[in-house]
Amino acid sequence: AQSVTQPDIHITVSEGASLELRCNYSYGATPYLFWYVQSPGQGLQLLLKYFSGDTLVQGIKGFEAEFKRSQSSFNLRKPSVHWSDAAEYFCAVVPNTGFQKLVFGTGTRLLVSP
Amino acid sequence: GAGVSQSPRYKVAKRGQDVALRCDPISGHVSLFWYQQALGQGPEFLTYFQNEAQLDKSGLPSDRFFAERPEGSVSTLKIQRTQQEDSAVYLCASSSTNTGDGYTFGSGTRLTVV
């Protein structure tokens, strides 16, 4: 079945440490890929997106993501986490079927310890 | 306006009541989406408008849910005879593109059915 999987429900990282959040998708053709962040009580903010081309994508707030076709993955990374990065992170896809609705994963909650 | 505005911010409804949730998209955005986000879950697609035309309503969970956008700008999501399982955050997003990027999300309406 077509799906977006975020295997980690919660992740705790020490401030200043590196971060990697996992995302795998299951679609026949490579979809458009996105990472969103949601702070408590806030809407979703786009961090970065991948449509085609360079497989390493730079986003806002120092985040980057790498598309790996062979692994059907689009993992989000940050070299040094700040306390303000604590939030819920969602991977999302737009299936490349000509219709543009976003399909979200279940999210990963990032906790940052001092 | 500068962003997507949703009202009310919070809504408590008694089971069986009807509710109406409003979304003011960014001016000029032709695409408008409604998503439902249950506690601890990722947003799930409900319906999509292109201008005033509702092009996809496949995500509406039952015939108690109805959405409209009569003049191609403001949209209303109506839920009739609310049930406890309708408790969720309802997110609205608008976009000027048809490629899945450029979505701007509102902060959502948190509906609690008691």
What is the count of distinct domains of chain A?
Answer: 1
Residue stretches of chain A low in confidence (pLDDT < 50, at least 5 long) are none
What's the assembly state of these chains?
Answer: heterodimer
Which stretches of chain B are poorly predicted, pLDDT < 50 over at least 5 residues? none
What order do the SSEs of chain B take from the amino end to the carboxyl end, as H and E? EEEEEEEEEEE
CATH architecture of chain B: Sandwich
Give the CATH superfamily of chain B. Answer: Immunoglobulins
What class would the helix/strand composition of chain B place it in?
mainly beta
Mind telling me the CATH class of chain A? Mainly Beta
Could you say which overall geometry of chain B the principal axes of the C-alpha atoms support?
globular
Task: Give the amount of beta strand of chain B, in percent.
Answer: over 45%
The chain-level structural class of chain A is mainly beta
Main interface: chain pair and counts: A-B, 23 and 27 residues
Q: Separation of termini of chain B?
A: 33 Å
CATH topology of chain A, what is it called? Immunoglobulin-like
Q: Provide the CATH superfamily of chain A.
A: Immunoglobulins
Binned, the helix content of chain B reads: under 10%
Count of distinct strands of chain B: 11
How many individual helices of chain A? 0
Share of β-strand residues of chain A = over 45%
Mean pLDDT of chain A equals: 91
